[in-house]
Structure prediction request, 339 residues.
Amino acid sequence: MFARQAFRAAQPLNTQYRRYATEQASGSSNTILYAGIATLVAGGGFYYLNQGDNVAKVKTAAKDAEAKAKAAAGQVTSKSAFTGGDQGWVGLKLESVENVNHNTKRFRFALPEEDQVSGLHIASAILTKYKGPDMEKPAIRPYTPVNDEGEKGFLDLLVKKYTGGPMSTHLHDMAPGEELEFKGPIPKYPWDTNKHNHIALIAGGTGIAPMYQLVRAIFNNPDDKTKVTMVFANVTEEDILLKKELEDLENTYPQRFRAFYVLDKPPREWKGGKGFVSKELLKNVLPEPKSENIKIFVCGPPGMYKAISGVKKSPSDQGELDGSILEQLGYSKDQVYKF
Prediction:
């Protein structure tokens, strides 16, 4: 429904949100955490150096702290299940299924070995393949896992079931123990620490998955000070995926992360945006087009791309902004990335 309807105006938001877009970023709690680890390791080292075999404990602690920091920054040090290139398709067994809402489930697939990570980097996706007995050609669909890239032994997919969608229907019909073929990683937007001063994420429905991957990488890395503004549109409140995780980030990093929710069919007591993502909403909450080193990311159904950023023509062709809302607001093609 969201993809097929035109975008109506959302309720205008107070202009104080524009001031948020230009606030100076503050240090994160992770910075303090990792600084504390470094201090403990350094301070403990002096003691252990005089304890013979205990020297190894210092080295292990330092190595663990370094590995944790690298994992937080997306620099995975473990062996990878998916290596790209000519690796081919890999069958993964479905380990568990969790009902998220009326049409969305979270699927956990076991990697071939317990000590493997997926091998996905920021930002990248993975392909799935399924061919039913009556299908002439296999269905191949990309998904972005929603678990941390450094987690070992599994990957999690958040999948909404679409009427007539062969892959989403098959996934929702799967039972633990069954296998699905995977291939990847499929590179998207390469992210480096502090690549941009401020990014904006405009998502609709399950388009939140690649946005959440990017947000995790930023806020798991104590060296990354990027400011993030998110606009997340859905039909109903129940459709807001990963809401708890997003609220936790907003509470932890109030000076660096803000999320604005828009519902097509809000409940009576809803205080967020109503209708669809509008020009007024984006003008109020996004960083100014003339701001230094910003990037706008868009991911959602076809109708959203057309209205917000212009359609993406192919994986290698981002397409033009084509009179979209972002172009009307003064953003250039180079400032926008369509997942």
User: Anything to note?
Assistant: Residues 29-72 form one domain. The chain has three domains: 16-26+193-338, 29-72, 90-187. Residues 1-60 have pLDDT under 50 and may be disordered. The CA atoms of residues 82 and 339 lie 21 Å apart.
